[in-house]
Amino acid sequence: MLFRAAALLFLVSPAAIAAPRDALDPVVRLYRDFAWEAVIDEPIAGRGFLTESDAVWSRYFSPRLVKLLRDDRQCVSRTREICKLDFSPIWASQDPGAARLKVVLGETPATVNVSFDYPGNGKRIGMKILLVRSGAGWLIDDIHYPDGQQLKKILETME
Fold first, then answer.
1. Quick one: pLDDT at residue 42?
2. DSSP assignment, residue 109?
3. Quick one: signal sequence residues (predicted)?
4. Quick one: CA torsion of 148, 30, 19, 21, rounded to 10 degrees?
């Protein structure tokens, strides 16, 4: 019995134990880098999340999600109208705002849960972030919202 326990400890290396925590990295960086959108009203502290370049989005998102975001932004530029996204996908709102933001590992190694209080009404918002592993580490591949919508499905819908 002692041998089996030692064998199990050997099979679960420190790298395997630490790997899921790495999934937090792109999500924490994303919210750290764009927190100003939710807390600074004026003056604007930089380019907004939805106006960023593919190079910036690629720091956090999978290539497929970057392409979908770019396609939507190009549609907005071309038509001068709302296309598929009518809200900030990282804040689940048209008017970003957040207090008590929390980023924790989810129920699988490829899931991160984000929650925060929306200051306008005090409602607790919870989102599930799905990640994929790439050569550069973990990248966000989808966001599931409290109302059941999913970012990829919103962006992939035909017009």
1. 64
2. T
3. 1-18
4. -80
Question: Hey, is 20 helix, strand or coil?
Answer: helix
Provide the pLDDT for residue 18: 43
All structural domains of the chain: 20-41+48-156 (3.10.450.50)
Single-letter amino acid code for the residue at 10: F
Decide if 159 contacts 145 (C-beta within 8 A): no
Nearest to 70 by CA among 91, 51, 47: 51
Task: Give the distance from CA 132 to its chain's centroid.
Answer: 12
| pLDDT the model gives residue 72 | 96
Count of beta carbons in the 10 Å neighbourhood of residue 159:
6
Q: How far apart are CA 100 and CA 2, in angstroms?
A: 45
